[in-house]
Amino acid sequence: MRGENRFPQAAVKKELTSVSENKEGNGLSRRKIGKKGFPQLEIRRFFMKKTIITAIILLFALSLAACTQTVQVFRTIRWEEGEELVYDITKDSQGSYKYEEVDGAVKIPDNVVGTMTMTVNKAYKDDSGSVSETTVEIDVWNTYRVSALNGFDLTKIDSEYVRYDESDTEAVQLRTTLRYETKFPLYSCASVKVSGKGAVIVVYKSGNEVEFNDYTAVCEKFADKKATYSLTFNNGAHENVENAVIDLGNTEFTDNTALMYVIRSLDLSALKNAGSVSFVASDIVAGAKRTVTVRTSAASDSLRPKAVENLLLESIGEEEKNKLTVVRVSGGNTLRGSYNYFYFDVSEDEAGKNVIHSSGKTVAKNRIVAMQQGYMVFMLRNFR
After folding, report:
1. Which of 3, 80, 139, 271 is 20 to 30 A from 238 via CA?
2. Would you call 284 exposed, middle or buried from its count of C-beta atoms within 10 A (0-12, 13-18, 19+)?
3. Which residues contact 361 (CB under 8 A, 6 or more apart)?
């Protein structure tokens, strides 16, 4: 059985003349789904013709070019059974993301209000190493102009997923809910269930279209470098998928639904020294595997989301903000935003509230304090 803190096949590029050792590992990512691809942890949007948008982040092994060194990276459990983290979701009003209305993309709303709750239901060890059973729940209301509906009959949407803004008769609010139930060892996945429901506006050359979906995706078989899954549209919006297979191409992998936890498991100091690392992960809603690249973000990074930076300044002040470690994630070609940013609290406080004893040592919990994914900003409640 592999040591639970090893990530043997994750190779990292490091432009140094001597080899330095990493003590723990890293990896993460996010993604879009759509006719032409789109991430999220998004988290995020979902529902394109025959596809749906969910969060993303993945794992892979990089081949190294000449004059680079291979540095092993590792993962460590940094959470405890019963942990619950609640995030407020708002729109990135300062346009940190790059955006172009591409045919088949979800239209950016005028406003976003919602919550995300991440819960560790169980954490234990078995023959596969450390295993976690987690739930992630997202509930978001997106505000659009009524004119953007392009004449769509809102009575086709379940009543609890549409409402009008009492202060603005020209605005309508559409709701999206997502629930991820995941059982995963640190270097693979055991089972996944994704439930999604909601309405979004999709941009097409012929005009905007409103799509309302209610679906359930389930994968209970990760074996032989493959994930076998089913996708059921509970409202008959699209054709169901049965026993479909995603070729993972690797015995070590993770799933999209576990990605935010995988990110937390990383030694971010090692990541900074390594430069970057890339990952591959399954996404049973999109029916695909994804590759993303993760690296730490320097203070000089001009692409850091201004909305997140300002919210952190207001809530915890510049001194505390500057103590956070920032990670930048890119997922290749996306319809909404070239990068996603994650802000981690890596402090090992004397009171012991931000540390955990894992694999015989004390490590920081690496709580995600803030995130920017696409046009959405996530802020942890009651930080500090």
Report:
1. 139
2. buried
3. none
The owner of tokens 């015989």 is 360
What's the rounded Cα separation, in Å, for the pair 77 and 4? 9
pLDDT for 220 equals 93
Q: Is residue 194 within 8 Å of residue 166, measured between CB atoms?
A: no
pTM for the whole structure:
0.80
> CA-CA distances (angstroms) from residue 138 to 28, 55, 169, 295, 364?
19, 11, 27, 26, 26
Where along the chain do its domains lie?
A: 13-380
* Structure tokens belonging to residue 16: 């140094």
Under a CB-based contact definition with an 8 Å cutoff, are residues 292 and 339 in contact? no
Can you spell out the DSSP letters for 45-65?
A: ---BTTB-------B--PPPP
Contact 25, 61 (CB under 8 A): no
**Cα–Cα distance, 137 to 118 (Å, whole number):** 7
Question: Tokens 């000449």 label which residue?
Answer: 66
Alpha-carbon span 31 to 378, nearest angstrom: 16
Name 194's Cβ contacts closer than 8 Å, sequence gap at least 6. Answer: 54, 178, 179, 180, 181, 216, 217, 218, 257, 284, 285
Cα dihedral: 10, 13, 18, 23 (round 10): -40
Query: What is the pLDDT at residue 217?
Result: 97
Q: What is the DSSP letter of 148?
A: G
- Per the CB < 8 A criterion, the answer to whether 213 and 198 are in contact is yes
Q: Residues 126-151: pLDDT tens digits?
A: 887 889 999 999 999 999 999 999 89
**Coil, helix or strand at residue 35:** coil
Which own/partner pairs from 315-323 qualify as long-range (CB within 8 Å, at least 24 positions apart)? 315/379, 315/383, 316/383, 316/384, 320/384, 323/347
Distance between CA atoms of residues 213 and 288, nearest Å:
19
